[in-house]
Amino acid sequence: MTFRITSLPLAPFQSLFALDDAALAALGARRMIADAPNSAPCRISLADAEPGEALILLNHRHLEDPSSPYRAEGPIFVREAALEARPAPGEVPDILGRRLLSVRAYDADWMMTDADVVEGRELGDRLMQWFADDRVDRIHVHTARRGCYLAEAERA
């Protein structure tokens, strides 16, 4: 058994770059320019923006199930040049592999079954361990320090 890391889909975010700053602010979003390497991980492309690259910073509900006490939302970056990432089964994208991560396992009812803080280079092994448990349906990956949602993992 293996896993697949999935990004957010591009379609719901594509139109944001056509909005002016006032329209973005009305949505609680901001136009940003990446100012340092590895500082703005895009949740669509699963790649960090390069310094000088345009992004939108916005709030996103990544756990939407209204019946779950774990429903959650938070800030995400979307690169203007984003294309949807499609990591191969068992592949850990670089933006995950080089960060300290907070990882949360959920069952099919969106109840948390386990959680851990993991060095990114150890993520693949930890995902395999969790997916060996039939109760685990999906896993959310967050930055450990700021707690921002990065990606989801599912069985492949």
UniProtKB/TrEMBL annotation:
InterPro entries cross-referenced by the UniProt entry: DUF1203
Pfam families recorded: DUF1203
Protein name stated in the entry: DUF1203 domain-containing protein
